Amino acid sequence: MSSLQKPLALRSGSVLPNRISKAAMSEVLATPDGRVTPAHLQLYDTWGASQAGLLITGNVMVDGRHINEPLVVDGLHPDNFTALKKWALLGPKHGVHIWPQLSHPGKQSPKIVNDVPLAPSAVPIDNPMFQPPRELTEDEIWDIVDRFAQAAHRCEKAGFSGVQLHGAHGYLLSQFFSPHHNRRTDKWGGSFDNRMRFVSEVYQEIRNRTGADFNVAIKINSSDFQKGGFTQEDSLRVAQALDAMGIDLIEISGGSWENPVNRRGTKESTRRREAYFLDYAEKVKSLIDVPLMVTGGFRTKAAMESAIDSGAVDIIGLARAFAVDPYVARNVFNDNEYTSSVQPITTGIKKVDQMAVMEISWYTMQIHHISQGKAPHQKAHGAFSLPQVLFNFWKNGRAVKRVRA
Ligand SMILES: Cc1cc2nc3c(=O)[nH]c(=O)nc-3n(C[C@H](O)[C@H](O)[C@H](O)COP(=O)(O)O)c2cc1C
């Protein structure tokens, strides 16, 4: 049996049936006011049938006023509970775990949906899609802590076996970690302990309101790869602190909107090893006991197995591979030569190809095919998906603003 098919016991007592996880990918399938739709259920029914031991959902927002993009799920929408229960049931149906990814975008809330994004400090993002943020007040920080805990409690009541906190890619939790984004001089900024305070409070409050067998995981960056930002040393310390607090799983990624290395890798050597963050995984693994998931770049069964066999990684996270082959986990288990067909998506225009939204838009289109019960349309040209997705972004952004007006 492949090492990828070995079960993994977590601290909570849960057992993941194997070592492949679908990493979070924003589905962009909710209604403009953030309700779950039948398309979500069809999508996760398909991905569940892939037999990946753990399916982490795309961003589920803890505040419907602060969203990372249009048509994302609002975890606290009063009318979502029945649909969340149906979504959660797909886990036991397929014998896999489904964990919603709880998220607050902070300043990474685009102006198409948000005129006043919030952040630890009023440091703008170097991207014209976003308005400069306003600094959070102390009361607002506590309100967000409470929202994360409410959302986690709701997910538990709906029947999900855990949640993952989005602490990577420049979203609010990671903004608090970063000395570049967090310039506060109160107890929420400055020293390492102060920059950790927000995630610690969120984590503790979730633990206060959920049972001991409920899984709480986090996705963190190995580094932001940004001058003056969250460094690898900081990241190692964050992982150690979360391990000591009792977290159930840490997923490693990297980068942000300003530097999307999570989908490109950092340097040629890491690209050659397939997985972008393996060097970091080896370092952090020697410092922590909690299981580690590494996401970014895995394409072949050989590389996945070798990462698990090396002992540096406990779970392989795959994102884009699930958008081009919804049954990728099952196919990896059955085919020793498996190689994902994920390729760089290009239009041939260099400036366009460098835009983060370019690749995302093509994969979102594939996710939408799967959510309609269709096969991915892998031959679609990058130049075709971009205008379509940008148009939808604009149209849906206006719809979001209309429902809020
Ligand atoms: C369409 C798309 C949507 C994504 N949405 C999310 C998200 O909601 N949350 C998240 O943590 N990462 C998100 N990611 C990043 C992936 O989880 C993953 O870190 C990245 O794609 C690298 O993994 P891969 O090489 O297996 O694709 C997204 C990626 C894509 C392509």
UniProtKB/TrEMBL annotation:
<dbReference type="InterPro" id="IPR001155">
    <property type="entry name" value="OxRdtase_FMN_N"/>
</dbReference>
<feature type="domain" description="NADH:flavin oxidoreductase/NADH oxidase N-terminal">
    <location>
        <begin position="4"/>
        <end position="332"/>
    </location>
</feature>
<dbReference type="Pfam" id="PF00724">
    <property type="entry name" value="Oxidored_FMN"/>
</dbReference>
<keyword id="KW-0285">Flavoprotein</keyword>
<keyword id="KW-0560">Oxidoreductase</keyword>
<dbReference type="GO" id="GO:0016491">
    <property type="term" value="F:oxidoreductase activity"/>
</dbReference>
<dbReference type="InterPro" id="IPR051799">
    <property type="entry name" value="NADH_flavin_oxidoreductase"/>
</dbReference>
<dbReference type="GO" id="GO:0010181">
    <property type="term" value="F:FMN binding"/>
</dbReference>
<protein>
    <submittedName>
        <fullName>NADH oxidase</fullName>
    </submittedName>
</protein>
<dbReference type="InterPro" id="IPR013785">
    <property type="entry name" value="Aldolase_TIM"/>
</dbReference>
